[in-house]
Amino acid sequence: QKLILDIKSNIEAGSTLHESLALAQARGKDVDGAAASLRKALELEPNSLEWRVHLARVYLDGGRRKEADKVMQEIATLPAGRTPPSEQTQKQLDQLRAEMSKQTAASVGGG
Predict the structure, then answer these.
(1) What's the CA gap between 12 and 44, in Å, rounded?
(2) Among 55, 68, 87, 109, which is 20 to 30 Å from 36 by CA?
(3) Of the candidates 2, 89, 88, 94, the residue with the CA atom closest to the CA atom of residue 47
(4) pLDDT value, residue 93
(5) What is the pLDDT of residues 18-34, one digit of tens each?
C-alpha cells in the first residue's frame, strides 16, 4: 500500500511540475508550450478536470477558441465516478463557461 501511495505521490508531483511549467509558458504567451505541458500532466492523470480547465483557459486566453471548445467537450465526457472537483477548480470551470458563453453570444449578436 505504501508503494501505491508513493506512485500516486510521484504522479501528482509530476503533473504539478507540468502545471507549473505550463503556467510559466502561458505567462510568456507560449500557448503551444503551455498546452503541451498540460497534455503531459493529463497523460499522468487522464481523468483530471483541473488540468483540462487550465488547458481550456490557456487556449481561450491564447485566442484559440476551437481548441478551447474541444477541451470543454472532453470535460463534458469525463467519467462520472471521478473525485469531485475542488471548490477552486469548480469556480474556474464556471468562470470559463460563462466567459465562453458570453463570447458566443457576442459573436452571434454581432458585437
Answers:
(1) 8
(2) 87
(3) 89
(4) 95
(5) 666 676 667 778 889 88
At residue 48, the 3 state secondary structure works out as coil
d(CA 84, CA 93): 13
Radius of gyration of the chain (CA): 15
Output the pTM of the full model.
Answer: 0.78
Placement of cell 478536470 in the chain: 49
State the helix-helix crossing angle for 31-44 and 49-61, rounded to 10 degrees: 170
- Number of continuous H segments (helices) and E segments (strands) in the chain: 5, 0
C-alpha cell at 18: 507540468
Find the helix packing angle between 31-44 and 2-27, rounded to 10°.
170
- Residue 4 confidence (pLDDT) above 80: no
Query: Residue 77, class by beta-carbon neighbours within 10 Å (0-12 exposed, 13-18 middle, 19+ buried)?
Result: exposed
- pLDDT tens across 77-100, in order? 988 777 788 899 999 999 999 999
